[in-house]
Amino acid sequence: MHRLYSLALGAMTVALTLTASGASAAKLTREPYLQRVGPDTATVAFRLDTACAPTVRYGTHGSTDQTVTAPTAQTRQALELSGLEPGTEYTYVVDACGSRTSPVTFSTAPVPGTRSVHFTTVGDFGSNNQDQRDVSRAMLGRKPQLFLALGDNAYEMGTEAEFQHNLFEPMAPLLAQVPFFAVPGNHEYETNQGQPYFDNLYLPTSQRGGEYYYSFDWGFVHFVAIDSNCAIGLSSADRCTFEAQQQWVEEDLAASTAPWKIVFFHHPPWSSGDHGSQLKMRREFSPLFEKYGVDLVLTGHDHNYERTHPMRGNEVAPSGATDPVYLVVGSGGAKLRELSIASKPSWSVLRNNSDHGYLDVRVEGGTLTAQMLTPSGKVMDSFTLTKDLPPEPTPPAPGPQPTPGTPSTPGTTPSPGQPPIGGSTQSPPGVVPDLGDPNDPADTVPGCSATPAMTLLPAGMWVLASALHRRRRR
Ligand SMILES: [Fe+2]
């Protein structure tokens, strides 16, 4: 997927260009931020000081020749761009009744099944301090396809004003150019059970849980967002219940045939940080993660970084097992905290409470490579997970078009008799746990851990063939 980011454009993101001096011109009080980005859709949200019906102008190859205009004049706007091309860079500006933003770019999600995904993630950043800005700027510099926010996105109480001041203002350049998907932290729940969080974000939804919990595929990775506040009893029953969410998580994971599965939420099942392990999350959800082949569990809450071995139940998984690896990535900007357990537990591979930073993850084919980076680029941790994938289908030869009736729309459910999309039966157990000493350089340098062996059923062959065919035609 091509993706041409311009740092120069990025630097201009926050600069509004007023093109009219008329008193009727509305001013953006919040820069555009990208929500619900998929292969063919994106939502551009922003706020205005005066009610007006703005227009988003967008297009490919640097043009902005397509438009979508808000149906009503109001100060809170979220305009959906539809009919987009997957894996394609778009430029966009906001025309707000006389004022216009500087052009910036983003890319749509790739064709479902695409075997190359790059994202960054961190939590506990919403402080409007220099550490948050540094982490945010560094993430933008990595040019990720998407950004996962792990909660405590706006300290201290998650109010409307704090979302503006502690999330949208300090992270404006990142959020204007990188699609972001969030889960709520406990601090968001301090105000009306997170209502300002839900008011300000436009998240994917699940039929049962709305924006509280949801999932989406990006390329060949299945992402599942859990509201751990709801799970530990902080929601009223009319909004979100543990039981409904747990059942949905099981059904969602069971239904996914994506080769890679990544779950993210705020409260960590495993942590030796200040708050420690959230045992209900471990007891109630980890068995599902193990049963359905979740590869990575991303959390925050504790203001430090920590990585576990692959875990099964309450123990380190046997050597050669493919059980989930749990991360705490709570070093996004809030003040770092002391660890609650002085001596590193046996289940913990590595921990760091002296550096702010973020996790950069690349999933290429059967290899997931993660780096925990400081804003200056120092590598705090690096690890690799691997699994065997079936070979990618050969691109169709030029000439005759596919047989009539062959699905050509990416993401369409295959007809009976066609191969399933994905398929993640594990045999034999896969990732070999890294049981080494974190003081051993071999255990803390890039590519240290993991060895293969997760065998997958034939995956999404027709989808990939179709995608490749489409790409060749462009
Ligand atoms: Fe928290």
TrEMBL record:
Residues 381-452 are annotated as: Disordered. Residues 391-407 have a biased composition (Pro residues). Residues 26-110 form the DUF7800 domain. The keyword Membrane does not apply. InterPro entries: Calcineurin-like_PHP, DUF7800, Ig-like_fold, Metallo-depent_PP-like, MPP_PAP, PAPs_C, Purple_acid_Pase-like_N, TM_Gly-Cys-Arg_CS. Residues 408-429 have a biased composition (Low complexity). It holds the Pfam family Metallophos_C. SUPFAM superfamilies: Metallo-dependent phosphatases, Purple acid phosphatase, N-terminal domain. Keywords: Glycoprotein, Signal. Residues 324-382 form the Purple acid phosphatase C-terminal domain. Residues 1-25 form the signal peptide. GO terms for molecular function: acid phosphatase activity; metal ion binding. Residues 119-305 form the Calcineurin-like phosphoesterase domain. This is Metallophosphoesterase.
